[in-house]
Fold these 3 entries.
Entry 1:
Amino acid sequence: MTADPGTSGVVAGLIGAIGHTPLIRLGRASAATGCEILGKAEFMQPGGSVKDRAGLGIIEDAEARGLLTPGKPGIVVEGTAGNTGIGLTLVANARGYRSIIIVPRTQSREKLDFLRMIGADLRLVDPKPLRDPGHYVNVSRAIAEELQAKGEPAIWANQFGNLANAAVHEATTGPEIWAQTGGRLDAFTCACGTGGTLSGVARALKARNPAIRIVLADPMGSGLYSWIKTGELKAEGNSITEGIGQASAAPGNLIHGRDYIDDAVQVDDPTALAQVFDLQQHEGISVGGSAGVNVAAAIKLARQLGPGHTIVTILCDGGARYQSKLFNPEFLRERGLPVPPWLE
């Protein structure tokens, strides 16, 4: 797990730099709702996203179980929308392993370029439904199993089902939020890709105060909103967001934390993009689409709760990772979505 830098200001390498991100008061969202809306600045992680925590937690868990040994040859295999692959690759580099990362070719060019830049063995696949053997998760599992059958020291990270993902958030992200707010928060909301952040933070916060409200934020095109509300995974619409929402199955990490989740809110692309653009133009905070979903959900939740409450959410990654999509007027206009006013 991540080490607290304490007062010295010096941490031990990349591993020591993961975690302990600031909690930023979002001025315009707070003023609009009469609540304190706070964003955990995970875009400030060394790999640029909240998934650095998952990468570290999964690899440290594999080491604890004797599947990998620091400084000795090892291979980390994962299927990902991009950010988990980045976190895994950076931690693997720091530990002396190599990474094989399988990503749908539809993900943003910036994430793919970054993975290549940091030395991942990047393999692109066509987008497929989860039941298809060609789905990126299934391809990654097959590659890991093939390497293991040959006697290679390889692990399949399995971020969706590996509970080390949620465990690292329960051990680090949740306690950090509790400490940073002095325990004075009323609700936490964030979107779910694997469910690791939501479930882990929920478990940590509920253990300290069961009255804290935990709310899933879900984009259109995902069935998790329906799953929380009705128990049925039913997806409607679509979204340009990457790495969040599930249309075909609730991931294991989310199922693991289901009893800690109180409600869900749904956010469409125009509403999420409005927050992405507003944060950048007026507060100088550049984030991606999933953070836009999270902030929009926090505003919805604030209006449900009424003024005077404190709501925390996750600013998952930075806007530069989506320049070719979220900040590309042609891409946005083709989909009937708003364009940032400074790019009109």
Entry 2:
Amino acid sequence: MKGRWLKILGVTTLALAGICISTGQTSESKAQTVIESTSAGGSHVEKSGGAVIDYSNTSSGYVNVKYTEKTNKTMKVQVIGPGGNTFTYTLYNTSYEVMPLTDGNGTYTVKVLKNISGSTYAQVASVSFKASLSDEFQPYIRPNQYVNYNASTKCVKKAESLCKKANDELAKVKKVYKWVIKTFKYDYNKAKTVKAGYVPKLDSLFKSKKGICFDYASTMSAMLRSQGVPVKLVIGYTGKEYHAWINVYSKKKGWITGAIYLAADQWKLMDPTFASTGKSSKTVMKYINNKKNYKAKYSY
């Protein structure tokens, strides 16, 4: 619907800043990278004002959105879930971008919004639909705008190499986690200068070997999803600080919140950013093992 005016408020999720699964169920086979499809289906499409919303693949946990007209105006997408959560994204080009349906089964509304001035946006397209996911893992086993990868992405190839002898999800998590915290350095300058709308570019991060919490979480999410491990990239708070981390799923443990690290025979809460910047010191590990220090707000 054109001409509807509104303010975009609290778009805080934007300030932070390869898959061995055929049915959505996790695999315990050795390294094999297979990327789950996120292509537009074309059977259910809403077009209006240059915006295209393809909601043909809701059972697979995602929608495709693009804006086809050239513009120097900022374009936003809002995905409003059945739980009342509003996920806000920025559209960057005229090709489809993938937005996950992470609020579970139920009725979603997807809106495309065009900036008019300041924080004022006009709605150019909107569609509502009921989503029934084929299983709970669908949004967390695929690429999306925040975890954007394919078979040739460098960290995906690295994950395949790392996980050659890993026979289950937790072994893969351990391999990937150790590589990330030993390889990446925290980019304090980037943390000070990052602007709203920032999205990690995984190949650039792989080359520079440094980033902010969003980058750490996105890299690990791509690496593990590419190896058949469902991963939630979580945005929330650690104390008063806005932060990103990951939750992982295994057949043995179910969903493990805050991601994990291996200490003796116990899998405990793990934060790849803090573990890396804090050199996994006792003080840091004590902090990240206290779930009270983490409050999730969104997952992607």
Entry 3:
Amino acid sequence: MGKDVIIACDFSSAQATFDFLDKFTEEKPFVKIGMELFYAEGPSIVKEIKKRGHKIFLDLKLHDIPNTVKKSMAVLSKLDVDMTNLHAAGTVEMMKAALEGLTREDGTRPILIAVTQLTSTSEERMQKELLINASINDTIVKYANNAKEAGLDGVVCSPLEAGMVKESCGKEFMTVTPGVRFADGDVGDQVRVTTPEKAKEIGSDYIVVGRPITAADDPVAAYRRCVREFVG
């Protein structure tokens, strides 16, 4: 499994997204399409970006009753995305149903990963507001184990937890890590962050990078720096 940098294309319109992707004349970066863009433009944006030759991580974080998630995943699997996700908090049963819905008749399917805890959630908030009394690390490792039990490929977690997830679930279990900033950059609204270089050391398989690339003066140079620091 090769390491890769995924660019979070958190734009509000197709036009803004294509203006950004047009800057990449040599590379075809792996891109993440999140709720904002998908809700604004619908499935057509996925098809168009795919047509341009990009791999796509469709980041919709499904979380509902198992049957609804299963049916929704069956729809998403037709979009030919490379990776998609759901909330591990939806239970093992929901994750198994999602996997079933995502798997096509020929047995192929996108990579399916589960969100453990959002990178904006601190341990204090988790305990105080969500009434989860365990530590955030124990919670994340438990959710990762649930995802593994359900047959998923890996989890979304902050780079700070990637090492302990690998330790508990095995090195083949994938870690996709947002919350990555350059050492000399701004952390924004995320609490649990690290650098591309450090994420590589810890054992992240994919890093998801948004504003440090999309808001950079030279996004292509920022992307190449990220690849250089993370992939080597």
